[in-house]
Amino acid sequence: MITVIGTGTGAPVPEAAVAGAELVVGGRRHLEAVRLPAAAERVVLGPLAPALDTVARYVAEDRRVVVLASGDPGFFGIVRALAERFGPGRLDVRPGVPSVAAAFARIGLPWEDAVVVSAHGRELRTAVNVCRARPKTAVLTGPGAGPAELGAALDGTGRVLVVASALGDPDRERVERVTPAEAAARDWGGAVSVVLCLDEARALGPARTVAGPPAQPAGWALEESAFAHRDSMITKFEVRALALARLGPRPGDLVWDVGAGSGSVAVECARLGAAAVAVEKTADGAGRIRANAAAHGVDVHVVHGSAPDALAPLADDPDAVFIGGGGRELPAIVTACARRARRAVVVAMAALDRVPAAREALAGAGFSCDGVLLQSSRLAPLPGDVTRLAAANPVFLLWGVRRPARTEGVAQ
Questions:
Q1: Positive/negative CA dihedral, 255, 261, 263, 264
Q2: pLDDT for 364-384, tens place per residue?
Q3: How far apart are CA 279 and CA 196, in angstroms?
């Protein structure tokens, strides 16, 4: 058996747990914090592969191995790598209190409704977009993805960061509430345990039955009546349904809704867990988008300005973009969005003569293109308790998906 001991946040490792171990693997601070058998080989965790190879050698010889890990090693920890290499049946896991639980306990908040995301050895943008979209997020940090980097990315979002450092250490533990700007301006060192990102007005949410992020909405492509809009200037639900399918919004994504109007697409993307930015040129439209987002309980960052110029100050590239307006500027808008979109661009057009230029812009940016003319007729009542079909205006929906980069020199 491989004994995996979570050191938790402050609880010492019982000496009996490591007694008789012939190999002890762990971080330097974990190895130094417990009295180890004199004859035991010690491996300081750095690159994981060499440590696992050493463990494999001891396991093959049926010799006792102990692995020391932070917090709960089954929660974004080493248990996954050990189970994949040696099988769950070989593991005797003894969890400690995870840093996320300890951090929320320190500030007196429940955490069953928190979203937990790891930025350790992963792309920071995923954690940032989850923080933008959710009111209560815990971020497990790492080199290059700490409080300063999170703060720089989240400045202006209205969030508060709680930085918990050296949790469980009676001499060094610190739990600090800071603004993103304050976090960005500091050097936090290497003792950070976890960062909580909170919308404090919504941090104490309603009681939950299912832990984790909110359940996916029961439906999407909502009726137009679910949104405040002006003179039917809203993406109709039939068009919105296909647009959402092609955008593929999900937690960790960033989606732009350009020429947003009522913001119906942005709101629906946010309901599906993505971080959403709505770009709208009219002041009353921008206010309407904010009201629609609030009515549906989601965060949408509203940019009041005309595309494509309003897109340049947006620092983060989107995963997907929906373009629902643009007029004569449409080709320039599509080009600007296509240069930055990581995955997909979807364009809705009522005027057929704008389709070729939009398609050319997508193809020129390396996207494969497809499209469809959507024509629908809705049931409408007539006198005498009968029903007719009422035709809606046709809309051309064009979408582009970024082609995978070609790998030179690879045999086909």
A1: negative
A2: 999 999 999 999 999 999 998
A3: 28
